Amino acid sequence: MKVLNAEQENDVERVRQRELLAKAETMKKKLPWLKYGMMKAEYMEAKEREQDSKMKLDAAARTLNNFKNQLSMITSFSEDS
Question: CA–CA separation, 64 vs 56, rounded Å?
Fold first, then answer.
């Protein structure tokens, strides 16, 4: 009886090991996709930051051009006087 019980316990342990190995294999297959997802998220975040920076740069360039135009108008007005 003890021998049969020990064999059954070994069988149960082997089944558990097989299940754990199957789970580990599944996780191993999912790992590249998880890495891809993380890299894609980083890329999208960087792309968004780049777009924000471009918008800010364009706004600053417009402001600079407005100031240049006003300055040239003032200098031309003062030269005419």
Answer: 12
Q: Give the Cα separation of 81 and 76 in Å (integer).
A: 9
CA distance 31 to 44: 20
pLDDT tens digits for range 15-62: 999 999 999 999 999 999 999 999 999 999 999 999 999 999 999 999
CA angle 75, 77, 80 (to 5 degrees): 110
Report DSSP letters for 31-74, one per residue. Answer: HHHHHHHHHHHHHHHHHHHHHHHHHHHHHHHHHHHHHHHHHHHH
